[in-house]
UniProtKB/TrEMBL annotation, chains A, B:
It comes from the Bacteria. This is Zn-dependent hydrolase. It comes from Massilia psychrophila. InterPro entries: Metallo-B-lactamas (IPR001279), Mito_Persulfide_Diox (IPR051682), POD-like_MBL-fold (IPR044528), RibonucZ/Hydroxyglut_hydro (IPR036866). GO terms for molecular function: hydrolase activity; metal ion binding; sulfur dioxygenase activity. Residues 14-174 form the Metallo-beta-lactamase domain.
């Protein structure tokens, strides 16, 4: 049975957030929520009649601020984050292979997929993978800051994400071209940066990108390591 | 089992298009595709490994041009449209109660829901309803052109859409506030225009709106009545 998430978009930062609805229609999990949309996202949960069980982060974002802390405060949900991202206030610190349970019978598996940042994870749920900034549609996240490593990203994608079944649906953390979803099979065959490329080639390609620093980075990373809440609050 | 569509967005006209994936992962239907995104939408179908069975329209749109004709030409899919919308080149002309079948076991039921336009329909599939411009999240479509009627829209929403189960997920044709999905139960209780309002009140409210004419209207309606293809082509 094909079960998809509800995909939400932030136009300013081209960020996707996702609501995963339990099959028993009682509860949900949100992945990578964006600060300025916290009321919109609560309204979605209310309209769908769902209790928020967890707020998950794929990593400490550099381009937008999370609403995780706010959602936790308002709903009583638990924040669950990658243990390697320095997000200290989160109740649950996740490591590779951990399983998050919600609803009557939902299992989300944690895959540690470093490369965009050293702590980045992906989440696997019912034939879907939420890849954050590790694997994008026909691309991948940058690897030049926050302990990023093109070598690690290559190993994460080729060794872990491309080992998932070809029909697995890929839901990225961003898209800048209006694209929404892909599959592992398509990315294995066609991804412009990673398909049919050696680790050396990939490293050279990433080193040549010379990307500007994200405008919000110096604000966003410390804020996100505090779940988006003001420090000292 | 909760099965959601893939929801796609056009930023220019705030239009949602939807891909409904058959459970056997072989084929799909697209609802209300937008002209300028036809290549994006084909790429989605290719990435998901799906053959396009049908292109559906909820009505002849006034604010954007459809890619239906283009998608039919390129993929061999069939266009299925409401019989009351004057979209003459479409192979299948739908009426209330018709059922569209695709994949091994998929059924889409057609509900004639006039009011935004006289021909408008909604589509019901696996606990989801695609309401076009009849019912929006916390609102509804305008009723002041294209044989629109606030009386007819009221009867469509109260009599047909609100008769669906409360848990039915509502996927609108547009949203202008970043909202994505609602439920029949929530709209029955809270919709700002239609919840707990008499037909007379609703008529007065709609008559007082005095909305400007859509910029693209004189181009879009004739184009959409030809499935978005150039006339004489």
């Amino acid at each position: 049975m094909n079960v998809n998430p509800v995909q939400l978009f932030d136009v300013d930062s081209s960020t996707f957030s996702y609501i995963l609805v339990a099959d028993d229609n009682t509860s949900a999990v949100i992945i990578d929520p964006v600060e300025r949309h916290w009321q919109r996202d609560l309204a979605h949960l209310e309209r769908l009649g769902l209790k928020l069980a967890y707020v998950l982060e794929t990593h400490a974002h550099a381009d937008h601020v999370t609403s995780a802390g706010k959602l936790v405060d308002v709903t009583g949900a638990r924040a669950a984050v990658p243990s390697g991202c320095g997000i200290m206030p989160a109740e649950v610190q996740l490591k590779d292979g951990d399983v998050i349970r919600f609803g009557a019978d939902e299992r989300i598996e944690v895959l540690h997929t470093p490369g965009h940042t050293a702590g980045s994870v992906s989440y696997v749920w019912r034939g879907n993978v939420f890849t954050g900034d590790t694997l994008l549609i026909d691309g991948c996240g940058r690897t030049d800051f926050q302990s990023g490593s093109s070598q690690a990203l290559y190993d994460s994608v080729i060794g872990k994400l491309f080992a998932l079944p070809d029909t697995t649906r890929v839901w990225p953390g961003h898209d800048y071209k209006g694209q929404s979803v892909s599959t592992i099979g398509w990315e294995k065959r066609h991804n412009a940066r990673l398909a049919n490329r050696s680790k050396e080639d990939f490293g050279a390609l990433m080193a040549a990108l010379k990307l500007p620093k994200p405008i919000l980075m110096d604000i966003a990373i410390p804020a996100n390591q505090n779940l988006g809440l003001p420090h000292g609050a």
